[in-house]
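Request:
Um, any thoughts?
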Amino acid sequence: MLGSVLPLVRLDVGREEPPDDPSAPVRDFLVGSLVVVYAFDEGTRFRTVAQRDLAQLGVDQAALAVAAHDHLLDRMGDLEILERPDGCGMVRLDGNLEASALLVPQLWDNIGEILGDEVLVAVPAPDIVLFCGAGNHAVKLALRAARDRALAVGHRKMTSDLFRFHGGSWHVEPA
């Protein structure tokens, strides 16, 4: 069962459960308004891992995170990097894990090397991850416009924040 757990990057809705609530989801802070929740991949849906599941799985939160990350890496073979006409790039994985690609630093290091720049990312929805080189002003404007369009029409909105990959981790880009 532990082998079916995936890390899902989601918007932090700010709901605080009591620390001893066994039904509270297991989650970790990522950056800005984004958190990582863990979920069992049941094929047709994801079921959130609750605190009580840790004991049943026989792991602590750190071990769960490692197992989920390993499972995500197994799925990365299906990753596609698309080039958009506006100069931005886009990540495509499976319609559910695009935002989770933020959890793979080597991917963003490689993209940064290809771009010759630090990477700037927009995550307007769990299935939409757009990126560009942080130093290209024209493409940054295109990234913001694409993010705004996705937020205007999206059903599963996440955040209008932009994130910069720097030094192996994500940072909120000042507005």
Notes: The first helix runs from residue 51 to 57. DSSP finds four helices and ten strands in the chain.
